[in-house]
Amino acid sequence: MAISAQLVKELREKTGAGMMDCKKALVQTDGDMEKAIDFLREKGIAKAANKGDRIAAEGLTSIIVNGNEAVILEVNSETDFVAKNEGFQVLVKELGEHLLANKPATVEEALEQTINGVKVADHINAVVAKIGEKLTLRRFEVVTKTDNDAFGAYLHMGGRISVLSVLEGTTDADAAKDVSMHIAALKPKYVSRDQVDASELDREREVLTQQALNEGKPEKIVAKMVEGRINKFYEEICVVDQTFVKNPDQKVGQFVESKGGSVKSFVRFEVGEGIEKRQENFAEEVMNQVKKD
């Protein structure tokens, strides 16, 4: 029998399986929705449908560099165990290559594009069905440089943290990687002072002023003290002002200048940062089960 697009869409919404898998299931079951759902479940393809409410806060970050273009991305899984799965790692690589080649503006746009002849979202769902965990393309950033610049690509703990930096005016990739390693360790928020938002600076100055007054410092010297502490604040959040981890006698900015360049930009991704992880209470879970029994 002929299978309508509407029927395929309905089965996809109910199971989370890919379009082609849904069409095949409906053909196999002569358009019977319930039998088609069972067919997909038997094949393990419908597993993806029930994972939408789970929290995927583990996974991998990755970087792919191709000439003057590079992409840094994060793909999440539910457990760290799955992050070590070869199928998951292949998916991360495939997604990175796709993002670099197609340069979508957003994750939503990326999921609507096609990879290996199917939608990216469906491709991810197919891997979900095999692995049995919720998987999510969380974020990415495509970065470009010129022939006179250097990429610094650094992965820490196999991709737990990734940093992609760009040094301008030097082609020293080793120096750029050293800067990325520093960023992975010290987690700066900005390249330099001129990037710090004025409202963030005003808030910090307010806090430091109140701290000094609470310490009983005379008002006439508070302003001078605050400016000294603001300089310390800059050293905490601006990479060029930070003491270089590989040489405590140098600031990062000075190190890069010694290589004939400057820090243009950086992107730092850490797996799961900002995601509220579900706290499992196994003792409570067991007790609840005992009470039920």
Rounded to the nearest angstrom, the distance between the terminal CA atoms is 48 Å
Number of E-state strands: 8
- In round numbers, the mean pLDDT is 89
Poorly predicted runs of 5 or more residues? none
- The CATH homologous superfamily of the domain at 53-144 is called Elongation factor Ts, dimerisation domain
- CATH architecture verdict of the domain at 53-144: 2-Layer Sandwich
Largest sheet: 3 strands, antiparallel
Order of helical and strand elements? HHHEEHHHEEHEEEHHHHEH
Organism: Peribacillus loiseleuriae
Region (Involved in Mg(2+) ion dislocation from EF-Tu): 79-82
GO molecular function: translation elongation factor activity
GO cellular component, one term: cytoplasm
Characterise the protein shown here.
It holds the Pfam family EF_TS. Associates with the EF-Tu.GDP complex and induces the exchange of GDP to GTP. It remains bound to the aminoacyl-tRNA.EF-Tu.GTP complex up to the GTP hydrolysis stage on the ribosome. Its main location: cytoplasm. The mean pLDDT is 89. The chain has helices spanning 5-15, 19-28, 33-43, 80-83, 86-102, 107-112, 120-131, 173-186, 198-214, 219-237, 252-258, 282-292; strands at residues 58-66, 69-77, 114-115, 118-119, 136-144, 150-156, 161-168, 262-270. It is elongated. It starts with a helix and ends with a helix. The chain contains twelve helices and eight strands. With 293 residues, it is α+β, with helices and mostly antiparallel strands. A hairpin with a 2-residue loop joins strand 1 (58-66) and strand 2 (69-77). The relative contact order is 0.12.
